[in-house]
Amino acid sequence: MLFSSITFIFLFLPVLLFLCLITKQKYHNIILLLASILFYAFGEPKYVLIMLSIILISYIGTLLIDKFRNFKKPLLFLTILSNLSFLIYFKYFNFIIENFNSLNIYHIDIVKIVMPIGISFYTFQALSYVIDVYREEVKVQKNLYKLALYICLFPQLVAGPIIKYHDISDAIDSREINFDSVNIGVKRFIIGLSKKMLIANTLGLIADKIFEQPVTALPHLVSWLGAFAYTFQLYFDFSGYSDMAIGLGLIFGFRFMENFNYPYISKSITEFWRRWHISLSTWFKQYVYIPLGGNKGTKLATVRNLGIVFLLTGIWHGAAWTFIVWGIWHGMFIIIEKLLNIKEIDEKCTKIWQIVLRHIYCILVFTIGWVIFRSPDLHYAINYIGNMLGLVSINEKNIVYDMTYYIDVYEVIMFVAAILCSVPIFKNILQPKSTFKNICLNIWLLMLFILSVSAIAMNTYNPFIYFRF
After folding, report:
1. Of 33, 282, 381, 438, which is least packed with CB atoms within 10 Å of its CB?
2. Contact yes or no for 183/442 (Cβ under 8 A)
3. What is the pLDDT of residue 468?
4. Is the pTM of this model over 0.70?
């Protein structure tokens, strides 16, 4: 089920909220758990068993880790391996087989596998709980349905944010649904919905049209248009989902961490990763980078640790060489900035022209990175980037469409809206300081909601990009 669907907005969500409002608080967890399972089963009923298996493995594994502390390392290893086996099989098995077959040593037939939606997210969420119990940073949850609620809570189930158990354990045990949290939650949900339906989907159409064309059929400016269209599409699609998830969490009494903090205003790739997909970068920092030694050892060890983290970040995003190279691309710049001491550069570069140049540098790096991320294969990505840089010869006879085919007045308006909403101009929009501003905000949000619902009605299917991760 999609957040951006008529079924969810006008049936699932109102009915669920109504049930929570008319029942006692002690029944809210079981209602939310059943609703979360129904939410996931609505689109992929057969894969509910995969999610429930991961929950059960995590539950049994942590009980054993807590009881048999003398054997906690092998028990941790077995629990993590058992959970990861689902992710490896469904997400990476065919990729491994394809690359093995390319060696021409022995041929193995490809198996038809459909990856369960959100498996990367709820697997990592389960792993964080297991590791935290092993570290004795959280108490083991002996109530199975409470642990199940943590792992499969529907707002963040299929595309994050990746929530740590200790962040919501108190809310699972005791919380309340009140007018203020519902009010803010609904507003946050509408903002996320409008990001997705009005900006991301509109610019996504431009990106899709352009990336469907052969590189030699794209004028240089059009290739830049496609790159920027996808750059904004991805941000507003994913941050829109996160806004909706955070809003839904507030409606039902949970506070989820922020997942984005205006990443496109960054002046370095290091800063970019402090602002982009914060829950994932935090996960890798706490469960991979720091255990490897972080930056406490030699420079060479730090470079190795950063390289491993960003290689794994690329692999986490998908079973394709484009994602792996994208992770390496970002890791390379993170390492360079680390060796150049980016903190010292931040302190010294205070002049306007220096700041502007650093913004341009960062924008170019992550935009080129998104081209790699979006491309169907590395060959296309290399040629596309070459086109952007004017290194690919364009045959005028191959050019079927000019710039006007890809973008019209409405899409220009959405580009402007994307640029404005990518900077913290409207950062405190949900905290109006006067009654008049609050009225204006409510009218504006109502208009956005009507426009977004109209857009939903005109589109049969509009999945979130990160569903496939």
Report:
1. 438
2. no
3. 65
4. yes
- Dist CA 160 CA 259 (whole Å): 8
Q: Identity (one letter) of the amino acid at 140?
A: V
Half-sphere exposure of 218 (CA within 13 A, CB side): 29
Q: What is the residue type of 6?
A: I
pLDDT average, residue stretch 107-121: 86
CA distance 409 to 420: 17
Of the chain, the percentage scoring pLDDT greater than 90 comes to 72
Under DSSP, the state recorded for 288 is I
Question: From the centroid of its chain, how far is CA 245?
Answer: 11
Contacts of 72 (CB under 8 A, 6+ apart): 65, 134
Instruction: Report the amino acid identity of residue 52.
Output: L
Options 107, 317, 359, 379, the catalytic residue: 317
Tens digit of pLDDT for each residue in 362-384?
999 999 999 999 999 999 999 99
Q: Which of 218, 145, 184 is nearest to 371 (CA)?
A: 218
Q: Residue 117 corresponds to which tokens in the numbers above?
A: 């939606």
Q: Is 359 a catalytic residue?
A: no
Higher-pLDDT residue of 132 and 176 is 132
% helix / strand / coil in the chain, to the nearest 5? 75, 0, 25
The predicted pLDDT at position 216 comes to: 86
The dihedral of CA 247, 248, 251, 256: what is its sign? negative
129 within 8 A of 62, measured Cβ to Cβ: yes
